[in-house]
Design a protein that fits this description.
four-stranded antiparallel β-sheet; alpha+beta; single chain; 21 strands
Length: about 350
């Protein structure tokens, strides 16, 4: 095959193949006005698409936040100054340990985010926490009532040991007990034993005579699997209940608490101390008439609460206020937008 190129006096070039001539025209210069208009149209469409996504996220957001600008700010100064006392011990790496209890044989129990309750035996010379780690129980009850049917397992939160039984407040299944020797389970309070159903059962305490159990339902908005939404939303829907172990009667004694978390009776059992996580405070409730006796504001987010042998309270806290958190808490519309656009898995 012979390929020949011929020159012509015109601006067009030609090629000849087997006596067939094809003209190749040069590209015409693009109109700058048309190019600009095309770019503008693309940008406008992109902006409209983004606006549509943001609007859809805002209106379909799972939360309806309220401003938390009313939360009292406490500085980490003086007696509240940060120290490193708790960093000097030996740490054990576990997935989301919550409440910790100790039995008469110095075994430690704690519930994990994977649904396990583990037992840590004492080491040599009965050194607490220095011995063997083992799974004591797995929180999974097929067919049982759940606060979130999508949950693959339970979430053990509050723990107490009484009369050879480990009592567990499970955020998915409610309150049950496990015999320490036989590991036999007995359900005490299920999520649907109250109306509206329990959503995030959190913690509890038992009176000395064993007749009454006080327990918290942190929020009526979201189960533990989406508890961050409840914190971001800032609604005070937490509840406290009183359970009679003889009659099995349950009554609500307090509501409108700002994420009712840890609970603890005082020594004479005339006061129930409750950690309100969203409000960054501890509230003291009179168990006779359930009025608020006192509020203690904290510089961090209170979680669990327990009393030591001297009648003082240990309060586990997490996180402090930051400029970023303050910005979102003071701008609920932005919080709503973010929760509607960003998947929960990314937020956590």
């Amino acid at each position: 095959m012979e390929l020949r190129q011929r020159r012509t006096t015109s601006t067009a070039a030609t090629t000849t193949t087997n006596d067939v001539t094809t003209a190749v025209q040069p590209a015409a210069p693009r109109d700058p006005v048309t190019t600009t208009l095309t770019a503008v149209c693309v940008i406008i469409k992109l902006c409209l698409f983004i606006v549509f996504l943001l609007a859809a996220g805002y209106w379909t957001s799972p939360i309806d936040p309220e401003t938390l600008s009313w939360v009292k700010k406490i500085e980490l100064v003086g007696k509240l100054k940060v120290n490193k006392r708790l960093t000097k011990g030996v740490s054990i790496d576990l997935p989301g340990p919550e409440c910790i209890v100790e039995d008469d044989e110095k075994n430690i129990y704690t519930g994990l985010s994977n649904g396990n309750i583990i037992r840590i035996s004492p080491g040599p010379n009965y050194k607490i926490g220095a011995g063997r780690h083992e799974i004591f129980f797995m929180s999974r009850f097929p067919g049982a009532v759940m606060t979130d049917p999508r949950a693959a397992h339970g979430r053990p939160l509050g723990l107490r040991i009484r009369d050879g039984n480990l009592y567990v407040m499970d955020a998915i299944y409610g309150l049950y007990s496990i015999h320490l020797k036989s590991r036999k389970v007995h359900f005490i309070i299920k999520p649907n034993d109250v109306k509206p159903n329990l959503v995030l059962p959190d913690d509890f305490d038992i009176t000395a005579d064993g007749q009454t159990i006080y327990f918290s339902d942190a929020t009526t908005r979201f189960p533990v699997t989406y508890n961050l939404y409840a914190v971001i939303e800032g609604k005070c829907t937490g509840r406290i209940f009183e359970y009679d172990t003889k009659t099995r009667f349950i009554r609500k004694v307090k509501d409108k608490l700002c994420f009712a978390n840890g609970v603890q009776l005082n020594k004479n059992e005339k006061t129930l101390v409750v950690a309100e996580s969203i409000a960054r405070r501890i509230v003291y409730l009179d168990t006779g008439n359930w009025v608020v006796k006192y509020r203690l504001h904290l510089p961090t987010i209170p979680d669990n609460i327990r009393m030591n042998t001297r009648g003082h309270y240990w309060i586990g806290t997490t996180g402090t206020d930051t400029p970023l958190s303050d910005f979102f808490f003071e701008n609920p519309r932005i919080s709503r937008l973010i929760a509607g656009v960003i998947p929960y898995s990314v937020l956590t």
